[in-house]
Here is the input.
Amino acid sequence: MTTGIVLFGGRAKDLPYPGSTTGSTINGGVTGLVNTLTLELAPIRVNVAVNLYVDRGTGVI
Here is the structure.
């Protein structure tokens, strides 16, 4: 049996926008947590899933 951990984050840490202070902070923390857990829990897999927003009018991510 393979064990793993999946956390969910977002792009607000990379592309902040007005009013995204809380979201940007949390997303940055999730990324740091995943990086640390990957080292500390090896060989258990730790991944982060990030949803992307694509503006269908411009195709910009």
User: Anything to note?
Assistant: Strands lie at 4-9, 45-50. Residues 4-50 form one domain. The first strand starts at residue 4 and ends at 9.
